[in-house]
Amino acid sequence: MGCPQTVVIISDHAFINGGQAKVALDSALGLKARGFDVRVFASVGPADARLAEAGIPVTLLNGHDILSDPNRGRAIVNGVWNRQAGRALTHMLSGLDPATTLVHIHGWAKALSGAIAPAVRQSGLPHVYTMHEYALACPNSAFLDHKRVEICTRKPLGFDCLTTQCDSRSYAHKGWRVLRQLGLHAGGWPKHLPHLIYLSQTELEAMRPNLPDTARLWHVTNPVDAEPDAQVDVANNDEFVFVGRLSPEKGPVLFAEAAKEAGIRAVFVGSGDEEEAVRAANPDAELTGWVTPDQVQLRLGRARALVFPSVWYETHGLVAYEAQARGVPVIVGDRCAAHEAIVDGETGLLFPMASKEGLTGALRQLSDGALAARMGQAAMQRYWQAPLTMDSHLDQLETVYDAVMAG
Q1: Is residue 47 helix, strand or coil?
Q2: CB 203 within 8 A of CB 130
Q3: In whole numbers, what is the pLDDT of the chain averaged over residues?
Q4: Which of 68, 284, 301, 304 is the most buried (most CB within 10 A)?
């Protein structure tokens, strides 16, 4: 049958507010440039101006995501089952030809809810779902026990799961998350999802026990914004750089403490609830707050190494690949998806996840400028042998789309 002519992209947000929306919208633009008839369905606006410029129509509900909705009662109800989203998607998909149309779901948990599941299924259109997080299985979407700040291995919605307060807020909020998950199951996901895209082997291993045996699984890498520039002179840099939210699961305090013990210069590019804890743990650390993507690249250009101390699985670890592309070695926990970006001891260093002693030792190792330079050179060479470009991402998507349409 070949690739579809029309691709409907489903995303909670029509603008870039994180990695999930960025991949959804950037790939929509890339597919349009390749000649596909692309359409976007989303709840929360405003719509990215690039979509209109490219001639991509957007069906926008002008809704709120769960966290930003000023009407908390509406947020509670819509988060479990957003009837408006289900009806609007049913209307949008009606009349589209299943012989030429494919639906690609990128996100539902922050605004659209499980109400879109029956709308997609009942349309009869071929469809594929990208697992940008663990929301298909885990009520908190992360396989993370927020109270213990550690990976959770309990069976989702099993007795241990239901009786454990693992939520970042309260047990009542955990109960609401469980209701949202039950709504998703009532809508038919993940049981009736025929095609699933995963981003890393780490994600696949965590999700596989919770996926239907009938689903076909596809590995599609996220695109990385990088150019083959000159290698960063890591040997003459002295900043060990963290990029991301300063939240417990990202491990910023772990890095702050290890950096102080190792006697190295720590820079935190990002913001979040752990800012004061980071300052208390390491008063000499530099905190930049949120900066533009170009400024992130400037900080990587001043880095001895990127430090990725997350204490949960993650799904891909985009910034680790960005660093490798520029010849910056990465220090990362050994159970985090970002560890797949490196070869331990050659292009970066692994340490036992959540181990302050292990991270401190890795920081001390890369205090050796000559070693950092060798690892950085190897990292850059390895990355550019098979770069994660947008063209590569789109090629992978077309392969999946072709198989999905073949049914």
Answers
A1: coil
A2: no
A3: 96
A4: 304
* φ/ψ bin of 381: left (φ > 0), alpha (ψ from -120 to 50), beta (otherwise): alpha
Q: Is pLDDT at 183 greater than 60 in this prediction? A: yes
10 touches 106 (CB < 8 A): yes
CA angle in degrees (0–180, nearest 5) for 389-395-398: 145
User: Both tokens of residue 374?
Assistant: 């060798």
Give this prediction's pTM: 0.95
Task: Tell me how far apart the alpha carbons of residues 6 and 251 are, in angstroms, rounded to a whole number.
Answer: 42
- String of DSSP letters for 139-200: TTSSSEETTTTEE--SPTTSHHHHT----SS-HHHHHHHHHHHHHHHHHTTTTT--EEEES-
- Cα gap 128→95, rounded to integer Å: 19
Can you tell me the mean pLDDT for 18-45? 97
Q: What's the CA gap between 142 and 119, in Å, rounded?
A: 25
Whether residue 299 has pLDDT greater than 70? yes
- Residue from 205, 36, 215, 208 nearest 127 by CA: 215
The residue with tokens 């049958």 is: 1
Paired sense of beta strands 58-60 and 37-44, if any = parallel
What's the pLDDT band for 71 if we cut at 50, 70, 90?
very high
Say if residue 304's pLDDT is above 60: yes
Query: How far is the C-alpha of 51 from the C-alpha of 69, rounded, in Å?
Result: 25
Q: What residue has token string 């454990």?
A: 164
Question: Does position 77 have pLDDT exceeding 60, yes or no?
Answer: yes
**Please, which pLDDT band fits residue 1 given cuts at 50, 70 and 90?**
low
- 191 SS3 class: coil
CA distance 133 to 138: 9
**DSSP per-residue letters across 313-358:** --S--HHHHHHHHTT--EEEETTSGGGGG--BTTTEEEE-TT-HHH
Q: Rounded distance, CA 347 to CA 352, Å?
A: 17
